[in-house]
């Protein structure tokens, strides 16, 4: 099979597609496949950040509840007001264009946009839009990273 575009280095071997369990319950296969591409790119950004000591980090507005668990839940260390209060925290992100996602998956632009909206609505990630022609910034939330780390340990 010949590809009309070069396959990026990060996706030559494999891409992780999460099952419809845990934080991904209720998401369709296309959304989970797109998350797999974003996860690969995010891991590359994380590795660069750890090796070089600098990388893609930016302030993001979120709450402790959303950052830690994806859904508002009460913890004893915080009052309801403190726990759900909007905070600004610096998070690691990756940059990926929708055109790259479309080329990798073979999905149309409208489907890619819908899947990205679904991932944000499911509180899997936060997305910072970079204008009309710019590449979006994708911030993976902490509870998703913990979910993957637990999956790899077993």
Walk me through this protein's architecture.
By secondary structure, the chain is α+β, with helices and mostly antiparallel strands. The protein has a domain at 27-58 and 90-153: Winged helix-like DNA-binding domain superfamily/Winged helix DNA-binding domain (Arc Repressor Mutant, subunit A, Orthogonal Bundle). It is built from 6 helices and 4 strands. It has helices at residues 29-52, 64-69, 80-84, 98-105, 109-121, 142-153, and strands at 57-63, 86-96, 125-128, 136-140. The chain has a 4-stranded antiparallel sheet with strand order 1-2-4-3. Helix 1 (29-52) crosses helix 5. It is globular. The N and C termini lie far apart (35 Å). Mean pLDDT is 76; it is low at 1-7.
Write the layout of secondary structure elements.
Layout: H1 29-52, E1 57-63, H2 64-69, H3 80-84, E2 86-96, H4 98-105, H5 109-121, E3 125-128, E4 136-140, H6 142-153
Antiparallel strand pairs: 1-2, 2-4, 3-4
Helix pairs in contact: 1-5
Mean pLDDT: 76
Strand percent estimate: 15-25%
Principal-axes shape call = globular
Q: What is the CATH homology-level superfamily of the domain at 27-58 and 90-153?
A: Winged helix-like DNA-binding domain superfamily/Winged helix DNA-binding domain
Poorly predicted regions: 1-7
Radius of gyration: 16 Å
What is the CATH C-level name of the domain at 27-58 and 90-153?
Mainly Alpha
- In the CATH classification, which architecture of the domain at 27-58 and 90-153 applies? Orthogonal Bundle
Class of secondary structure makeup: alpha+beta
Number of strands: 4
Characterize the biggest β-sheet.
Answer: 4 strands, antiparallel
Strand order of the largest sheet: 1-2-4-3
Oligomer: single chain
Order of helices and strands: HEHHEHHEEH
State the helicity in percent bands.
40-55%
Count of separate DSSP helical elements: 6
CATH topology of the domain at 27-58 and 90-153: Arc Repressor Mutant, subunit A
């Amino acid at each position: 099979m010949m590809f009309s575009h070069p396959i990026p280095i990060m996706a030559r071997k494999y891409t992780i597609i999460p099952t419809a369990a845990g934080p991904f319950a209720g998401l369709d296969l296309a959304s989970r496949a797109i998350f797999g591409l974003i996860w690969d790119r995010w891991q590359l950004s994380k590795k660069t950040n750890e090796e070089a000591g600098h990388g893609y980090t930016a302030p993001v507005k979120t709450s402790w509840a959303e950052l830690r668990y994806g859904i508002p839940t009460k913890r004893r260390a915080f009052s309801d007001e403190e726990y759900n209060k909007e905070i600004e925290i610096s998070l690691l992100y990756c940059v990926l264009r929708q055109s790259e996602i479309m080329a990798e998956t073979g999905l149309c632009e409208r489907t890619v946009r819908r899947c990205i909206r679904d991932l944000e609505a499911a509180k899997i990630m936060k997305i910072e839009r970079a204008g009309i022609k710019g590449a979006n910034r994708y911030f993976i939330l902490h509870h998703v990273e913990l979910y993957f780390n637990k999956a790899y340990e077993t």
